[in-house]
Fold:
Amino acid sequence: MTRKLEGKVAIVSGSGRGIGREIALKLASEGASVVINDLDAAPAEQTVADIIAAGGQAVACAGSVTDAGFADRFVQTAIQTYGGLDIIINNAGYTWDNVVQKMSDEQWDAMLAVHLTAPFRILRAASDFIREASKREAEAGTPVHRKVVNISSTSGVYGNAGQANYAAAKAGINGLTKAMAKEWGRYKVNVNSVAFGLIMTRLTEASAAADTKIDIAGQQIKVGVNPQILKNVEATIPLGRGGKPEEAAGAVYMFCIPESDYVSGQVLVCAGGKP
Structure:
């Protein structure tokens, strides 16, 4: 049986761990050659090694999506390594929460930079290739559908207390998605976003420790959720639990396959039925 993404080339930001890793593994398992990105080189290289061990193709492009020049390097890694670019997944990100009266400019700016400005730069960096490739394909009578999936959040759809910065950035990515769907439709690019609810990753796993933190660009960011709070949240989800990273990847995958060629400008909520 032919794999649905055979011959496609994908870039997935933040794909060394968590949801991004599962997205990359899924795309690779369906035949795509994947450029793996993570802030740190080690997890990116591990994901590459796992894909290759499973018979797929992948290469790493480590670094922060917010760094100047990263977007061009990311896009060019795909083009120079695999000769093209068909799928763009803007997934990289993290949360840095606080109530508005205690939120610093640094916290606000950091969330907009990673969740909104970085995806914009990546799409801008890919625009020349996409326009030129679309023109060549149209002239040859061999049109190709390309896919962009931007990762949003239910916080960006419904809002969430303590996340004014994150919610604003994720609402912004939904707006960017809808604008780009209209702008790139003539190039046969489907642009959609997936808004995740509670997905169980290292950022949301149960943690009794109040000071569990990870280092992101020199900042100590609190991760983990109090087990009782996590239990209470899961009780409000119609399916009764948080989602698995591979289930989150499945929602993204649906927007990458030919069956979604006439779906664009949409925000899919992947939250176990929770509104």
